[in-house]
Amino acid sequence: MTLTPDLITSTYATIQDATIRTPTVKAARLSLQLGFDLYLKLENLQHTNAFKTRGALAKLLTLNETQRRKGVIACSAGNHAQGVAYHAEQLGIPATIVMPVGTPFNKVKRTEDFGATVMQYGTGFDDGVSYTLDRAAAEGLTFIHPFDDPVVAAGQGSVALEMLDQVPDLDVIVVPIGGGGLIAGMAVAAKAINPDLHIIGAQAELFDAVKAQLSGTELHNNGASLAEGIAVREPGQANIDIIKSHVDQVETATENEIEDAVFDLLSYEKLVAEGAPGAGLAVIKKLAPTLQGKKVGLVICGGNIDSRLLSTLILRGLVRDGRITRLTFAIDDTPGQLSDISRIIGEEGANVIEVIHQRMMQTLALKKAELEVVIEARDSLHVEAIVARLRSSGFTLRTQSGL
User: Fold this and answer.
1) Over the stretch 361-383, which tens digit does the pLDDT of each residue have?
2) Which of 25, 254, 264, 326 could bond to 400 as cystine, CB 3.0-4.6 Å?
């Protein structure tokens, strides 16, 4: 079977009643910041909070009665696992999901909550695939591949059909690339509607298999990426072939750029997004000078980011923006010093959120103390004003950024 516009259209007809037609909304604040209109396709509002549910359902609906009765098996630690589990339960199909050893408990539980049996094997997707295929052959189960399947890719391509129906005059669509199923399906669908549409793929720099193939550059395929949903070492060859013929360019983003972009989506647009769409926004920010005057669409392909990781990311983002700053003082160990410092910070309109008073450091003189004060301010300019006021009041201090 070949991925074609007709296959995408017919597949969409079979899945649209059981999937959410997610909105495509203008990112008002980010558009102002970037200088052009940015539209976000909110697949983080999809069933299981990711686009993967589309392709999973599409494949499940092609099974015959014997295949449904015996059940299906998939290999995934994230969105594909939950998509298969969710729709298999809805259709009454037994599902087994193979996840890497060490998969966070909350991901295992969310998948089990949809009625799937979870098995843990290996250290990642590549380790688990051969084991999953062996189990499928031994038990007569149907393997649901997360991306290397034209029916799955056709289901993912329905994202483009909706997106261009909602905002027909888009000039550019940016799509994250992992295994390539999403961008292959979307590119085929989008180019059939508007051949002049510019399609840009976005990858994490640590996992840039497609970019490396297209540009002939050195391949990176290791490391711990925030964009774990697109951290794929070997994309499907059929998808790569479609990318070569339908996608106009592929760009990468560093981990710091992805982290900043996820924080921007949360801070500016109040959207919880995982690292993959963060890579997409990071690429858009890098290409902003060339996108002026364009209408640009970005697929927010998933929102399943770990809550603890998100908490840390938010705090790091606040530190980068200067909204949370650590001030370190060298003070005389006499009464009233902390009171005076707190009073000045309060008068300048900032909050003190943590204080550490250190007397026992051997690098300090006996009658000196080191005081660390973490403050919450409006922004970096506000911090500069507070530091200037403290210094003019006779205090010696440095900030976390060395101000």
Assistant:
1) 556 666 678 889 999 999 889 99
2) 326
